Amino acid sequence: MERLLNVTSFLSILLVAMVLFSVRRSHIRVEYSVSWLAAAIILLLLSRSSFALEWISRQLGLGDPPLALMLLVFCVFVIVLYRLSVIISDLKDANIAMAQRLAIVEFQLQNRSANFPAKFNEE
Amino acid sequence: MKPALEPNQLLILIPAFNESGAISSVIQEVRAVMPEAPILVVDDASTDGTNQSARSAGADVLRLPYHLGLGGGVQAGYKLAYELGYEYVIRVDGDGQHDPKYIPALLETLRETGCHMVIGSRFQNGGSGYTNSLRAVGIWFFRLVLRPILGKPVRDPTSGFVGVNRQALQVFTGSFPLEYPEIEALVVLQRKRFQFQEVPCRMRPRKAGRSTITAVKSLYYIFHVLLGVFINVLKFERRRRKDSPREEE
User: Tens digit of pLDDT for each residue in A12-38?
Assistant: First the structure.
């Protein structure tokens, strides 16, 4: 169990470092780094607090604290991925609406210049 | 394309993606049947010169900046038509499968019956046409699924040969399915208590190019559309329940 907790702690610290590095390099926006950092910190705290882990394990009815830790890892990352799916869906909707608007504006501009060539030439 | 000035003015909408082999003849056929109606081709970022072919054939072209898929393209056309004040829009596919000689029948049904959407149906009495066996099974399945939801039978729910009036246009400018839009669009309209009619028509094999729907995609299609229908039913039922106390007040 101790080895598993150490590995989890190491991976959590690695995740924090990676996310901070990516934010610094502008590969991840600050607002989207929050979920990952929160997830990593939760896992780090749990892996360093055997009392908390055992308590959670008892509450979940699991005899094995490592199993509880794996379940929590799974839940935390499902939540992060779900949140990202919501964000991606919003972005896609906004992007499609913007592409349609761009096409319509471009169409109307072209029609305008075709209908009023003299005016445009004067300008 | 000028804004609609007269009431009842019709726009023919042709969504197209890499249809340079068929688009010119489709436009010419439409022009022969409806010489007065403006034709708008929505070019979904084709890479084969569909844009130029459509312009050469005399159509207006709404060119999307990148590939949005059928629903995104059709919705862009609907948005433009709505903004320009068109009363009716009839969609004809750019691959030549829809025979434009049925456009007057679709338009007449929209005008005469006051329904919000009219579907060109290859299975209605007098209709006929080409469809592969896999698609036929899909159509049969969706007929069964849609019957209780729509409250009346629909014989050709996957037909893209559809006409809509301005009220339906308004709805679709706000909400239109992105992928495989035909069936979901029908559910969206029905949930708003809009009416639809079917008109017999003939469908032909595509003139050029290949269908993008493969056997594997067909399974995805069924799952995707079923999910979309289910979500739409839930969404509108929730809204109806929310709205009902206010109506009582």
Answer: 999 999 999 999 999 999 988 998 999
Q: b or e along A12-36 (b: 16 or more beta carbons within 10 Å of the residue's beta carbon)?
A: beebbeebeeebeeeebeeeebebb
Q: Does this complex have an ipTM over 0.90?
A: no
Give domain B10-243's CATH superfamily: Spore Coat Polysaccharide Biosynthesis Protein SpsA; Chain A (3.90.550.10)
Interface residue A99 vs chain B (CB under 8 A): yes
B51 and chain A: CB distance < 8 Å anywhere?
no
Which DSSP string do the residues of A90-120 spell out, in sequence order? Answer: HHHHHHHHHHHHHHHHHHHHHHHHHH-HHHH
B45 in contact with A at a CB cutoff of 8 Å?
Answer: no
CB spacing of B80 vs A111 below 8 angstroms: no
The verdict on a CB contact (< 8 Å) between B76 and A104 is yes
Predicted TM-score (pTM) of this structure: 0.82
Q: Distance between CA atoms of A8 and A4, rounded to whole angstroms?
A: 6
Contact of A80 with A39, CB cutoff 8 Å: yes
